[in-house]
User: Fold flavonoid 3',5'-hydroxylase from Morella rubra.
Amino acid sequence: MAVDMFLLRELVVAIVLFFITRFSIQLLFKKPSRKLPPGPKGWPFLGALTILGAMPHVTLAQMAKKYGPVMYLKMGTCNMVVASTPDAARAFLKTLDLNFSNRPPNAGATHLAYDAQDMVFADYGARWKLLRKLSNLHMLGGKALEDWAQVRAFELGHMLRAMCESSKRAEPVVIPEMLTYAMANMIGQVILSRRVFVTKGSESNEFKDMVVELMTSAGYFNIGDFIPSIAWMDLQGIERGMKRLHKRFDVLLTKMIEEHTASARDRKGKPDFLDVVMANRENSEGERLSLTNIKALLLNLFTAGTDTSSSIIEWALAEMLSNPSILRRAHEEMDQVIGRNRRLEEADISKLPYLQAICKETMRKHPSTPLNLPRVSTEACEVNGYYIPKNTRLSVNIWGIGRDPDVWENPLDFTPERFLSGRNAKIDPRGNDFELIPFGAGRRICAGTRMGITLVEYILGTLVHSFDWKLPNGVDKLDMQESFGLALQKSVPLAALVTPRLSLSAYAS
Assistant:
């Protein structure tokens, strides 16, 4: 019995020593743990999905104050990192640009953008490059914008005359409806050689509603995107709505292309954008655009081209109506440079620094995309000493950067003067100054950046120069609440009374 007890004791000691030794060796040779960025722990299984709320850009900006400029969140089964300062944005969108040049899979790309067959959600590669090249050469680039300057002037003339009619009837002008109608017709003339809405009414308002719904639903944090195993359940009903909306857009786009094809023999003059795309569907790398790719591209151009620019113009007018002294100073500058006997022309903009400052200040405080369109890491990398795993989603909080008191003095105030002198005077919104990146930066910067800036400066300048503005009767203060989506909408659409301030002949052309 004594021998058995001795053997048993020795066996137990040996087993204990074995595990102690093995554990010590593992500790000795174990690779140092890779440190993830700080962030909230969230809930089991759901992670941080439950804490973002209805205004994720605001929540993430508040969380960044606690966790820092590079923040990690577990979103369902996915990793997500958020950049909340100019330096953090530069690290991801410039230093590591190539590693973050793809979009993560999501319901919006699948159900709205023809399964990512468009330019916005396509993988970085040959097809994306072909779509981007065609868009820049024939619609969005500098030379293309010059070529259709007359179209912009023509459609603005239509809009100004319609606003004059409203002023005669003392009717408020609903700004987003008016802008969508004008911009859709501008884009329609460039793409299809025709106005897509002949008269302002139910058809153009329905299109506006469809665009807003697309931008809103595509901006939702959809549970199925972050927990793919339960995506089929569509717990929030987001995907059902996307599928219905996609069918409506597909009918509209198919009709546009069919009518364009049928009218080919009757069209004379310079080929329009769709003509060029159809004739250059294949590149030297053997990449060929399908009809689905072309419809998806038109969807990008019509929706992003109208909604993002119109939202910035609406916010700018709302801020000026809330700050009459800014509107007065803009009028004074324009009267000195242009006078009141003609309309503002695009060539005047370079001589209107205060107007340009108003546009920049609006893009800072009310960026068209509050969270930069998501990207995903192709490989693991390191930022600010933190480990970023492969397949980590990236969001850049453009809204948060624009309202950061460490970046901007009195960021909640609307102060265009901040861009007229000092260190901010040379800041430009085209993606090189990371304090102000309303269109993003890097390879996946918004393809329509140049067009967006041109439209905002020209249309806003024309509206301000052409009219006196005041709130509708009975409205003492504007509701400046936001509505979250891919584009940052004003919760209550802006309506205002306008009075012509130029000579009558200025509105005739």
